[in-house]
Specification:
The chain is globular and about 90 Å long. α2 crosses α3. It is mainly alpha-helical and 326 residues long. The longest helix is centred in the last third of the chain and has 39 residues. 84% of the residues lie in helices and 0% in strands.
Length: 326
């Protein structure tokens, strides 16, 4: 199998998964995003919903599509089982959620600092909404008393909302995009796990990381050759969504940023079937590399076991000598 065969193989997997897979992904991610909206309007449990509902739901869609392709009938109870399997040892850290999030967060913070400095200079030069005079007046009125704060929030409400949206949406956009990028690269390990007899998630993840690092050129070439259209559409979708959010919700900066986050997951539901089909094609392309890495670990484990047994035998012999001497 060559790199030129990847689009054909991916399309074959997509056809096998069928339209039901597309509807399943979109419906589940739409429901998950609705939970996010309810969380925003009622009790803010966003940081619980994303890692414990949305991401396991995406995994369940992936596993359900994989099983349906083998003519297995999917029931609601079966889908719930797929959801629960995400939390088992074999599939632990399939998407490297925590690592992906913190890598995205660090890069986004650095980007945010640079972006705020640059956008501040730009807004000053174009005098956006009488920027310089407004900022000077706000700084002059900010003080220890709440009366001054109330005056600033009342007088400069529109100005502050515009600045907040301009400042937060691009950073949210970068954070979400990077998280999707890092998690999608890790998600290829789903196919190493589902095709492997190894039940230890950390070992499966180690094999995937070894393939990514040892065969970096082949992995990146396969990943970007298939996924660059999806990544581009992702970026354009987010950019358009952020622009619409800015135009419609200029009075509610936090709502605009939150709407962008929901849009990310709805968009992920639309592109999920294409992404998983691409990932399976990439796994098939690199399958021999994954097999090599698994064999290396087995050899290392057997060698370690032999060394351990040798040491135990030596210790037993030493004990026998000591007992004979005594």
């Amino acid at each position: 199998m060559t790199i030129k065969d990847l689009p054909r193989v991916s399309l074959e997997y997509l056809r096998k998964n069928g339209l039901i897979s597309v509807f399943l992904f979109f419906f589940v991610m739409l429901i998950s995003s609705s939970l996010l909206l309810i969380s925003y309007l009622a009790i803010d449990i966003t940081y619980i919903i994303i890692p414990f509902v949305i991401i396991p739901s995406f995994f369940a869609c992936n596993l359900a599509s994989f099983l349906m392709r083998d003519q297995q009938v999917l029931t609601f109870l079966g889908f719930l089982k797929c959801f629960g399997i995400y939390f088992t040892g074999k599939f632990n850290s399939t998407y490297s959620v925590i690592k992906s999030f913190f890598k995205s967060l660090v890069i986004s913070v650095v980007f945010g600092i640079i972006y705020v400095v640059v956008i501040n200079l730009i807004l000053r030069n174009i005098d956006f909404m009488n920027y310089q005079a407004s900022m000077d007046d706000i700084l002059n009125h900010l003080g220890p008393t709440s009366e001054n704060l109330d005056y600033v929030l009342t007088t400069y409400k529109d100005f502050i909302n515009h600045i907040m949206i301009i400042s937060t949406i691009p950073v949210s956009f970068v954070l979400c995009s990077l998280f999707i990028f890092f998690a999608s690269r890790s998600s290829i390990s789903f196919y190493t796990r589902v095709n492997s007899d190894n039940q230890i998630g950390s070992i499966n993840l180690m094999v995937h990381k070894n393939v990514m690092s040892t065969y970096k050129k082949e992995f990146n070439l396969a990943y970007f050759s298939l996924n660059w259209p999806l990544l581009l559409i992702f970026l354009l979708s987010f950019a358009v969504g952020g622009l619409i959010g800015y135009m419609i919700m200029t009075s509610y900066s936090c709502v605009a940023s939150f709407a962008l986050t929901i849009g990310v997951f709805v968009t992920l539901g639309l592109y999920g079937p294409f992404l998983t089909a691409n990932n399976e094609a990439i796994y098939l392309y690199l399958k021999d590399k994954y097999d090599i890495e698994y064999d290396k670990l087995k050899i290392a484990a057997n060698t370690s076991m032999e060394e351990l047994l040798k040491k135990l035998n030596e210790m037993n012999e030493d004990r026998k000598k000591d007992s004979d001497e005594s």
